[in-house]
Amino acid sequence: MPEGPELHMAARFINQVAKHHKFGGRIVKSEVSTKNPDVNFDAKSYLISAETRGKELKVFLEDKKDSKSKTHILFRFGMSGCFKFNPVEDLPKHAHLRFFTLEEEPQQVLSFVDYRS
């Protein structure tokens, strides 16, 4: 089970990726992810940031054009789980939540990967 330091490293990873890439469009939940809620946040371009508290990681999304349009997603890591950043064609099999980059060739995806769910 990921502990505080692993979650802190995941938040740092998300923040580093977000610092160097533009994200936008629909946030996609995998077809097999039935226990996780849908994320109803649709901005053409948005900022991503993350922070941790205890065994929770919170990902913040903010519309670049409308700073009042924002939301967050709370992750409670189970026995496994991590964030990965890959080209879309190399998407991990168990990528349950996907944030896509804009204006990149090849397009990249930041995804929450959990092999146990």
* Proportion of strand residues: 35-45%
- State mean pLDDT (0 to 100 scale): 88
The share of residues in helices is 10-25%
**Shape, per Cα inertia axes:** globular
Main sheet: strands, sense, barrel: 4 strands, antiparallel
DSSP helix count?
1
Structural class label: mainly beta
Q: N-to-C SSE series? A: HEEEEEEEE
Biggest sheet strand line-up: 1-3-4-5
Q: Please, what is the oligomeric state?
A: single chain
Distance between the termini: 14 Å
Radius of gyration: 13 Å
Strands, total number: 8
Indicate the low-confidence ranges by residue numbers: none
Give an overview in words:
By secondary structure, the protein is mostly beta strands. The chain is 15% helix and 44% strand. The chain contains 1 helix and 8 strands, in the order αββββββββ. The protein has one helix at 4-20; strands at 23-26, 28-29, 42-53, 56-63, 70-76, 82-87, 95-100, 108-113. The strands form 2 sheets. It has a 4-stranded antiparallel beta sheet with strand order 1-3-4-5. Strand 3 (42-53) and strand 4 (56-63) form a beta hairpin. The model has no long low-confidence stretch (mean pLDDT 88).
Strand and helix layout:
Blueprint: H1 4-20, E1 23-26, E2 28-29, E3 42-53, E4 56-63, E5 70-76, E6 82-87, E7 95-100, E8 108-113
Antiparallel strand pairs: 1-3, 2-7, 3-4, 4-5, 6-8, 7-8
Write a compact overview of the structure shown.
The protein is mainly beta and 117 residues long.
Features:
4-stranded antiparallel beta sheet, 117 residues, mainly beta, 8 strands, globular
